[in-house]
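Folded chain entry —
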Amino acid sequence: MGVDDNEKPIGVKNDKKLLRESLLMNREKKAIKRRQTSKINPKINFCEVEDRLDRLSSSLIIENLEIYNLVKDLTNRVCFSYKDKYEKRWEQFYLPLKRKGKEISNPFSVAKYEKDFFCYFFQLGSLHIKKGNKETEKVFKKIFQEAIRFIQFI
């Protein structure tokens, strides 16, 4: 009772289908694992930043010593891009964000003029940061904590 060359054993028709399903499941598992093990894993949603910054109006002024010190820490970690008698500029910082289920990074620059910092976020808007003790939304603190954390990936 052997199997002819023309005859296929029972279940062979389904083997290709099972193999295809198995490959798809493996791909999905790998994609999920990649998302779960991403080292960057942004903690801020793009919409959170977009809602608080208005790219068409003037800079939002933040008078908070904690945020000022975070920006100072961020700029102390890298060399400046430009310096003259009046100001220093740091270009090419990146803010990791989540947008529509994907991880993105939004470029921004920082300028220090006299004792204040000015942060320019590409296509989002700008911040004017001064020393002070006014309460601010938590998202502004998270922005600079995330930028500091992201430096190691650049």
Q: What stands out?
A: The helical segments are 12-36, 46-52, 65-76, 138-150. The longest strand covers residues 87-99. Residues 12-36 form the longest helix (25 residues).
